[in-house]
Each structure stands twice: as structure tokens, then as C-alpha cells.
């Protein structure tokens, strides 16, 4: 496997998240790396990259997340919570829905 871009959890007070973040930095030295926000364990997230998403993207995300049945009773898996998060994030860039990320590094090859 030789990925060009890897998404990983942001480091926070959760030991598992910190270990995954640090190992991602260590292992994926030769590719672009971005972190994503986990609302339940990261009250502050310093996003520096926004991806505008469509209603279809949101629907696909909700469908995918519905497969994680063990989390369905958690407020952060609630469809309204997820939609509200995307609406709030989009408000910073004047859009309707957006996902946020923090860029650790972007590697571009100029042809």
C-alpha cells in the first residue's frame, strides 16, 4: 500500500487517539496527512481545511455510520447532531454543509 493521502484522528486526551495520531505521523512520512475532528473528545479543533459536501454526501455518511450499531445510542451518532455539526462548520465559509480537517502536511508533485 502506498497512499497519497491519509486521514487520521487528531491527538487529544484519549490515549488511543494520541497513539494513533503519533503512529500515523511516524508511519506515513512520505504522504499527505490530515486529521479529522471527533466531537465527543475534542472540544477545540483548529481546522485549516474545509471540504464542501452535498446532501448526497451527508446521506452516504449517515448510511455508513448507521452500520456501527454499537454507537447508535450515543448522541454524537445522532443524525441531527451530525447534520448540525456540518451546518455549523459550513457557516465559517458561507456554505450549507462542510467537513473540517487539519492539514498536517500536503505533499504535491509538480509535473
Would you write up a description of this structure?
By secondary structure, the protein is an alpha+beta fold. It contains three helices and four strands. Strands 1-2-4-3 form a four-stranded mixed beta sheet. Strand 1, helix 1 (15-27) and strand 2 form a beta-alpha-beta unit. The radius of gyration is 15 Å and the shape is globular. It starts with a strand and ends in a 6-residue tail after the last strand. 7% of the residues are buried.
State the main characteristics:
single chain; 111 residues; alpha+beta; 4-stranded mixed sheet; globular
Residue-averaged pLDDT: 93
| Structure summary, number of beta strands | 4
Low-confidence stretches: none
Classify the beta-strand content into a percent band. Answer: 15-25%
Distance between the termini: 23 Å
How many distinct helices? Answer: 3
Major β-sheet, in short? 4 strands, mixed
Helix-and-strand structural type: alpha+beta
Regarding quaternary structure, how should these chains be classified? single chain
In order across it, which strands form the biggest sheet?
1-2-4-3
CA gyration radius, whole angstroms: 15 Å
Q: Helicity, in percent? A: 25-40%
3D shape: globular
